[in-house]
Amino acid sequence: MNIEIPNGFEFQRVYCYPNPDQPLSYYYLPLQPQPQRSTDGTPMINLISMGTSGYLQLSVSWEAPSETLDALRQEIAQRESLDNPAVLRFAFAPVTVQQVSLLLSNEGERWEAIVTSRSSGFPPYAALFNAHFNAEQQTQVAAALNGRKNCLQVEYHAFLNGVAEASADITGNAANVIAQLKDRRGTLNQDEVQEVLKRSIDEGELQLTVITSEDASPQLIEQVSTHVLAQGADLLLRFLQGEERIPDITHFRVTVSKTEPRQIDLVLKNDVANWFPNGSSFNQIQPAPSGTSPLPSSPLSSPSSSLPVQLNFSPTEAPLALITVQQGTAKTTLIPPDFSTTLSNLREEPLEVETSYTFWGTFSKNISIPASGKLSLSPADLGLTQVTVDATALEAAGAKKARIRLHYHPDGNGVEDETTIYLRDRLWKVNWFVISRGDDLQGFLQYEWQVTLENGDLVKHEMTETTSPHIVLTAEEQAE
Q1: Could you tell me the domains of the chain?
Q2: 111 Cβ partners below 8 Å, 6+ apart?
Q3: Which SS3 state, helix, strand or coil, does residue 177 take?
Q4: pLDDT by residue (tens digit) across 9-61?
Q5: Distance CA 480, CA 478 (A)
Q6: 174 vs 253: CA distance, rounded Å
Q7: Tens digits of residue pLDDT in 385-417
Q8: Which residues, 6+ apart, have CB-to-CB distance to 359 below 8 Å?
């Protein structure tokens, strides 16, 4: 990837550049996505094989190894001749992740995005994939996990947020300009002064200099050029009318600087085979648990001793890996993406439902067989709480976009978690699932949010706490 930022450089697959607003401060940008790893360093990736089909669980992140950042700190300290590298401050570059994709290929000939996920919204921009494969695709995934390249890739689509800069100066001897204007000082207006100023620049008495960054737009250059003329004319007019003092008219100087937002498109990829250079993925490829049907399917007509099992909610973004439903020797497993199957050979006894999460363990609950003859599992049955963020009132009020940051604090056996949600376009109501291991939130939420109004104003709202999983954002709430 070709990124060009003033004074930027690449070091051990990390791009680094100075923060122009703070001394001894640097931004860094990892150039390759990485797998999230367990405490023993093993990549968090599992391929469940079911013979003619399979599914993959994969957790990825956009981060640099800590040892790489330590080495980068030493490198910058050496470049800057610093005795103490600890004075350097690092921050992840200001980026916005649009999507994270899992790409599958036939020996690198044709890449296809087989599943796309949102990132967490904040560094290290973690993303979770649950992907179902047919037999041919499963072969390619297994090959990648055994070290064969050009089979499976992770791809981050993002853009780097920054600014383009431009400045304009008018310098030189303004004595002749003032001489031309002083007799008309009582009737002059700014436009007349600006015309004389332009003529003086054209004739070489004064110099107009424009300095820009490489990515400055023609509009930005035009703005600084126009504004410096207007500011110079205003200064001369106020000087002629006795309202302003110019210390030395032979060294006249006016400067205008402006910036504009800029975005650098980023596409960062990594071949999954790079995570298993020696084909060391034996623990990542597993047979399906006993009782798992080869392909998830909609329940069909079945004898009275059979029980269709499904979810009563959309599991998109839920941290679900497997759901096992068991009664004695009767057992079945629900797998992504449908989480739908049938349990046979039942007796009139409670069912044990065990949920395996994509992180932080499992949850078990006993559930009676419903009289309806169909088991529809709710988030609470799986130890989850569905948090709903409803910003449709902001959309109705004409808001352009909003952002909310949430932090879940469990009281009991839940898992502390946080996320950032972006609301815009047609997406103004979003669900987030937290592992509460209870029938309700079992804790509290902290959240702060901001909204960009129809007129472009940014309104920020202070941190709020709630024990309700239903959050409604409205334009009438008190801002900071």
Answers
A1: 9-162+264-287 (no CATH), 165-257 (no CATH), 307-382 (2.60.40), 385-472 (2.60.40)
A2: 103, 104, 105, 153
A3: helix
A4: 999 999 999 998 889 999 999 999 999 887 777 788 888 877 677 888 888 99
A5: 7
A6: 9
A7: 999 999 999 999 999 999 999 999 999 889 999
A8: 44, 59, 319, 415
